[in-house]
From TrEMBL:
<dbReference type="InterPro" id="IPR001763">
    <property type="entry name" value="Rhodanese-like_dom"/>
</dbReference>
<protein>
    <submittedName>
        <fullName>Rhodanese-like domain-containing protein</fullName>
    </submittedName>
</protein>
<dbReference type="InterPro" id="IPR036873">
    <property type="entry name" value="Rhodanese-like_dom_sf"/>
</dbReference>
<feature type="domain" description="Rhodanese">
    <location>
        <begin position="33"/>
        <end position="130"/>
    </location>
</feature>
<dbReference type="Pfam" id="PF00581">
    <property type="entry name" value="Rhodanese"/>
</dbReference>
<dbReference type="GO" id="GO:0004792">
    <property type="term" value="F:thiosulfate-cyanide sulfurtransferase activity"/>
</dbReference>
Length: 133
């Protein structure tokens, strides 16, 4: 018999959404290209290859997030040390809610995540870039 489930993903996302700023699509669209904002795509590389990403977004694999944020980690990425607003997004906003909460819990501020994820972004006519390779 397996271990008893204590929390569901849905409850964790709901908790994260209570603690993290959620950006609507139109508000986020207005932030694209701003020097003081970094969009962070936490989706899998195959998802990015298939659908593209928000222009200028940084790809941060969900499994490396904590390591890339922590300045004491050998995997730290300098862009997380910049004085910017970090807007996390994924396909539908569950992974980004958890990612933004994790980042916030680690002391990265200010952070937010995109309501509805890239799916909602595309549906609302948000610009998407595709990278070669």
């Amino acid at each position: 018999m397996g271990a008893k489930q204590i929390k569901t993903v849905e409850s964790m996302v709901a908790e994260a959404n209570k603690e993290v700023r959620i950006l609507g699509i139109e508000e986020a669209k207005a932030m694209v290209g701003n020097d003081d904002v970094t969009f962070v795509d936490v989706r899998d590389v195959r998802e990015i290859a298939k659908t593209g990403r928000i222009p200028g977004a940084r790809h941060v694999p969900r499994g490396m997030l904590e390591f890339w944020i922590d300045p004491a980690s050998p995997y730290f990425k300098d862009f997380f040390g910049e004085d910017k607003t970090f807007v996390f997004y994924c396909a539908a906003s569950w992974r980004s809610a958890l990612s933004a909460k994790t980042a916030q819990d680690m002391g990265l501020t200010p952070v937010a995540h995109l309501e509805g994820g890239l799916g909602a972004w595309i549906k609302a006519g948000g610009e998407v870039e595709k990278k070669d390779g």
